[in-house]
Amino acid sequence: MAASPYTPNAAFRQLRGAHSPAEFAALVRRAAREIGETVSCDARYVGRVESGEIRCPNYAYERVFLHMFPGRTLADLGFSPREAVRGRAARPAPPSPRSSPSSRPSHPSKESDVLRRAFMAGGSASVAAATLTFNLLGDQRRPVARAGESEAAAVEDAVRQIRLLDDRHGADGLYRRATEPLRAAYALLDAGATRQSTEDRLHAGAGELALSVGWLAHDSGRFDDARSHYAEALATARVSGDAALEAHAFSNTAFLARDCGRPREAVRAAQAGQRAARGLGSARLLSLLCLREACGWAGLADRSSCEEALGRAHRHFARGSCPADPAWMSFFGEAELESLEAACWAALGEHGRAARHARRAADLQDPHFARNVALYTAELAGHLARAGAPEEAAWAGGRVLDLLTEVRSTRIRAKVADTARTLVPHQRTPRVSAFLDRHAAV
Predict the structure, then answer these.
(1) Residue 2 domain-assigned (yes or no)
(2) Residues 401 and 437 sit within 8 Å (Cβ to Cβ)
(3) Which of 134, 265, 339, 411 is most buried (most C-beta within 10 Å)?
């Protein structure tokens, strides 16, 4: 039997004491009610925490756990820092044989902190401060210095911060703030680097940043901008010969093509991503790309090709996770697989089957990813509405409205609006009427 890729959380297991996982989950739900939180904790969730699969809880669970164990920190409960969980840590720079005591020192912490403040503050002045920290957009008459390790680390940190904020809040409001650091990252590439290892990091970091910013555009309904950013990332991957970045870019391109109603392009992009990913050793990456392909075939109403691609996706997924899995795929687990399969069946007109998979997605999703909890629940509401279950759809839609107080995503709001339109013929049903009234007010 293969060893678990996770490190068990012994501290959390000790806190559970003699309670069974189900009993402890009930205590968690009760504690949540005491402070006005809503969590769907069960024995499975407790097991995932104790196994180390959930390295850091989402913000709702964090508040509940700190309420249950006053005086303790997340670290005391055995959890990792949130910034260490979401995204890839900066790779240590190899020592340079050409370095000397007079070489320019690196200050990655200072650079990263400025970028982080820029994203959190959200003002144009903060973004300008981040850009000026790169020494790129201040005085255009001055030559741009060649990039070093601190600049590469700052680009990588920007990627992590975007992903963290997207998980918590969704894309709306983040996109415009993220474009300036992206421009700065590509200006660094144009300026060149002090050594090849740094240039490789800059190419990878700038490409991932382009994909992250592209995703913010995608999720906030700016499809043309997203397409441009994804193409930019793909070009960066091709120039640097980075197969991992290329596979990521094709995955996002296939996803965007599906959302834009270009299913044949989705199929071709997903297949190109699979070719790029074959030598990377990540079965989970291949699984995701097969799912992207399946969604494209479903959009073309090609049921047999869709089912064949779904079968490949499940076979790859069953091989499990491994160290070769890209950091950006931290969102991809059984819940996302169920969600994408649900989308395939919906595109093929089987809404009841789609609803069953969507329900599993919503139930399985790690609450750490607040945006995805809202997304899967919104998808469930839409499938239920079309499957002839209006009251259940209204309940799920109401749950999404609760979540949208913290998550801001044009894509999710559009799904809720579509569900509301579908439920209008059932507006005499009390639960449906209450949901429609609430949606209209929001």
Answers:
(1) no
(2) no
(3) 134
Beta bridge partners of 193: 147
Regarding whether 224 and 125 lie in a shared domain, the answer is yes
Nearest CA among 384, 369, 343 for reference residue 164: 369
Same domain membership, residue 64 and residue 157? no
Characterise 71 by phi-psi region: left (phi > 0), alpha (psi -120 to 50), beta (else): left
Please give the backbone phi and psi of residue 388, each rounded to the nearest 5 degrees, phi first. Answer: 85, 30
- 72 token code pair: 């303790």
Among 49-63, 152-166, 182-196, name the one with the lowest average pLDDT. 152-166
> Distance between CA 104 and CA 89 in Å, rounded?
23
Within 8 A by CB and 6+ apart from 141, the residues are none
pLDDT in tens, 230-283: 999 999 999 999 999 999 999 999 999 999 999 999 999 999 999 999 999 999
Is residue 130 in a domain?
yes
- The answer to the question of residue 30 being in a domain is yes
pTM beyond cutoff 0.70: no
Q: What is the longest distance spanned by two Cα atoms in the chain?
A: 78
Do residues 35 and 120 both lie within one domain?
no
Residues 115 and 231 in one domain: yes
Give residue for tokens 């969730």. Answer: 45
Count of structural domains, the chain: 2
* CB neighbours of residue 332 within 10 Å: 20
Task: Note whether 148 and 196 are same-domain residues.
Answer: yes
Same domain, 155 and 224: yes
Domain end position, chosen among 82, 100, 130: 82
Asked if residues 300 and 263 have their Cβ atoms less than 8 Å apart, the reply is yes
28: amino acid identity, one letter:
V
- Domain residues for 180? 108-241
Amino acid identity for residue 422 in this structure: T
Q: How far is CA 260 from CA 211, 300, 338, in A?
A: 17, 13, 21
**Is 415:339 a contact under the CB 8 Å cutoff?**
no
DSSP letter, residue 147 = B
193 SS3 class: strand
- Do the domain assignments include residue 194? yes
Helix runs in 242-347, H state only:
243-259, 263-277, 283-299, 303-318, 334-347
